[in-house]
């Protein structure tokens, strides 16, 4: 996936987060979770869904 495509998808995931569509945001972030910023946001989403082990795992990556 190109950098531009990753940024577009990241933006879509953030919009999903803002709209409260947490599972959709997770699905989008998982596809591009290869850098700290993506992993941090993915960890935040898992935390909001009370999936604490997944949250910690992503935040610490």
Brief account:
By secondary structure, this protein is mostly helical.
Q: Explain this structure to me?
A:
This is Tetratricopeptide repeat protein. With 61 residues, this protein is mostly helical. The chain has one domain (3-59): Tetratricopeptide repeat domain (Serine Threonine Protein Phosphatase 5, Tetratricopeptide repeat, Alpha Horseshoe). Helices cover 79% and strands 0% of the residues. Helix 1 (3-18) runs antiparallel to helix 2. The longest helix is centred in the first third of the chain and has 16 residues, at 3-18. The radius of gyration is 11 Å and the shape is flat. The two termini are 20 Å apart.
How is the topology of this model organized?
Blueprint: H1 3-18, H2 22-32, H3 36-48, H4 52-59
Helix pairs in contact: 1-2, 2-3, 3-4
CATH topology: Serine Threonine Protein Phosphatase 5, Tetratricopeptide repeat
Please indicate the percent range of residues in DSSP E strands (runs of 2 or more). under 5%
User: CATH H-level name... which superfamily?
Assistant: Tetratricopeptide repeat domain
Please give the domain count: 1
Text of the CATH class: Mainly Alpha
| Strands, total number | 0
Classify the helix fraction into a percent range.
over 70%
Query: What is Rg?
Result: 11 Å
CA-CA gap between termini: 20 Å
The biggest beta sheet is recorded as: none
Protein name: Tetratricopeptide repeat protein
Organism: Rozella allomycis (strain CSF55)
